[in-house]
Structure formats: structure tokens, C-alpha cells
Amino acid sequence: MASNFKTIPIIDISPLLKKSDDPTMSEDKGVLEVCNLLDRACKEAGFFYVKGHGIPDSLINAVKDVTRDFFDLPYDEKNKIKLSAVTGYRGYQRIGENITLGVPDMHEAIDCYREVTPGMYGALGKSLEGSNMWYLFWFRPAALMVAKPRPCWVRTLLIYQKEMYIYLLFHRAMNLYMDKCDNVDFRPSNPSNFKPLMEEYLGLLKDLSRRIMQGISIALSGSPNMFEGERAGDPFWVMRIIGYPALSDSTNAMKLDNDIGCGAHTDYGLLTLVNQDDDITALQVRNRSGEWISAVPIPGTFVCNIGDMLKILSNGLYESTLHRVINSSPKYRVSVAFFLEPNFDAAIEPLECCVQHTGGVAKLGRAVYGEHLVRKVLTNFVM
Ligand SMILES: O=C(O)CCC(=O)C(=O)O
Ligand SMILES: [Fe+2]
């Protein structure tokens, strides 16, 4: 549970980055100082700014400029990369199409997900590969085996329901598989510099976020590479390129119905890095007593926050704090959020070192990341 923080700490991570290829990094004084600050921020707020991250200001700003250029285009042009189930929920969504807690969000966005390859599904996914394999899964003989004595038809029905649910979930996950939508490019070719710029940016953010996770590993008393391998060695990632119309703006394709740019939510994965507009305060973070604390833009920094999967891994030591966006300024706001996630098929459960630090009992249950993601994405869109 986050504390009653009133401000969000700023952390200079340059000492951590300098040592990130050094196997003895966790003995370095400068690294340990950064890790202490990360530890405190993750416990108290679940949010922090990073500076000294090495990503040039010119690129950070160019990414926001090209985002603004895209959202400035006519609706029909933007809709050429329309998000749908066929694109695996990738692409452009108009204002009001994204839904948080049943309420349409007053933003437009491009959603980008890492492509999903068959190997990423793990055992369950593998059984669904190939055409129509799912019905074997549906009626497999093992489905008739249950521990508790119940009439046969009840047992069959219960298993049938559960398996159908799992099937549906993974069917949607299969839609995230790029081979199913390789004729749909969800990245716009207009503006022409959009793709190369975002590719470069994405590469740098993947690297940066993994380096920050090294610091978080050390902060949690683990080895610097605790999140590599089965947990997040081949991480899934998401990038949301977002535009929030000014409240007074009625020229948009859909009239604004409410003032919530993005409803209160927690992020799904490990760590989020937000590149937000410099001159508009709109992102708000909720503290323990329910006050909304503004994440005031600090040029040249990223706003970072903890996601649900890291909350589970840390056994609740770190908070995935509720946040929302309200753009009450008279200007259109853009932000680009990068989400570092676990491996798609990672089974996430509290880490032993965190259980030890939190009274010896695992307080949070196990979650398969891909299932968690698909469940969340499906509640975000009405299709
Ligand atoms: O636009 C922002 O500042 C944050 C967006 C956000 O919280 C999200 O996309 O999860
Ligand atoms: Fe968020």
C-alpha cells in the first residue's frame, strides 16, 4: 500500500547505468545509493522520475512531435491503421474507444504490442497451435478427471466451462500473434518519419527499462539479473502513443463526454516509462489517503511506475499505484508510454527473497502474465 506521499521522487540513475554490464555492480557504492532510492520510491509511491538515463532530449522531443503530427491528421487517415480484433488489438483507436471501468476514456491512441510467436505460449499455448487444435483441448480425455466426487455430468460441465474460458482467453491471445495479422501494419507510414523514429526509441527504452530493473532487483536483495531468464529474459512489451484533446476541443471526431483522459487504473506489467508533454500537468497518482498527486512534467525525465506483476513478485512490498489522466488545459496533450512486461508465458509469483522480507508468507497469488494481459485488454475494448 502506497504511503501518504505528497511528491514523486526524482532519481538520477546514471551511477546505475554506468555499472550495468559489471558483474560486481551490486557492490558499487554509487549503484547501491541509486538502489536505495529506487527501493524507497517503489515502496512509498510506486512512482518516480528518472534523470541521467542517457536518452537524448532531442529524441524524447522528436517522439512527442511526431505523435502530435500523427494525431493532427484527418480521422480517415488515422483510421487506416485502425485497431481491431484482427490486428490483435494493435493500431489506432479513436476518442472514447478505450474503456476504463466501463467509462470511455477521452483519448485517442496507437497501441503497439510486441509480436507473439508460438514459442511464447508455453505448454498451454502449444496445445492450441495449428488449425483447429482447440477442439482436442476442449474434449481431451483428461478433462474427465477430477478429484472431488460429484455426479459425472456436473464434473464434465464444470471442466467444460473452465476449459472453454481458458480457450477463449488464449484464442484472443492468439489474435495477438502477428502471423494472424501480417497483412495489417499497425504502424503508420504517415508521417514518414514515424516508423524509423519509433523503432529507434523503442530499442533504447527496452534497454533502459531492463537496466532500471537491474537496480530494482538489487533493491529487492536479489542478484542484478533476477528478472532475466524465465521471468523476463524475453520480455513482452507494449507501447501506447496517446493524445488527449483539450477539454474545450469540440472539433474532434467524437464530442468529449467527460473530462477523464484515462480513468484510474494500475499498469499490468513490471515497469512503465512515460514520456509526457513538458508543459501540461495531467497525470495524477493516488496516495494512501486517496488524494490525487500530480506528476508535474519535468523536462528530460521519464515518469516511471510499478506494474501489477512487480507488485506480485515483490509480495506487495512495491505498489502498483492507481493513476489517471485529466487534461484540463486548453492544449492538446501527448504522451508515449512504454511498458516492460514479463515473458508472455511467465508464471509470476512472489519471489522468495521478498517473501522473507514480508513475514515469510506469500500474500499474493500466482498469475500467468499473458492471461493477465489478455483479460485486461479484453475489458478495455467493446468490439
Ligand atoms: O498519459 C500518461 O501520462 C499516462 C498514461 C497511462 O497511465 C497509461 O497509458 O497506462
Ligand atoms: Fe498507466
From TrEMBL:
In this entry, which stretches build a coiled coil? none
* PANTHER family with a match to the protein in the record: 2-OXOGLUTARATE (2OG) AND FE(II)-DEPENDENT OXYGENASE SUPERFAMILY PROTEIN-RELATED
User: Residue limits of the Fe2OG dioxygenase domain?
Assistant: 235-342
Specify one Pfam family: 2OG-FeII_Oxy
Superkingdom of the organism of origin:
Eukaryota
Similarity-based family: Belongs to the iron/ascorbate-dependent oxidoreductase family.
Can you name one GO molecular function term for this protein? metal ion binding
- Protein name per Swiss-Prot or TrEMBL: 2-oxoglutarate/Fe(II)-dependent dioxygenase
Q: Which cofactor does it need?
A: L-ascorbate
Q: Per UniProt, which keywords does this protein have?
A: Dioxygenase, Iron, Metal-binding, Oxidoreductase
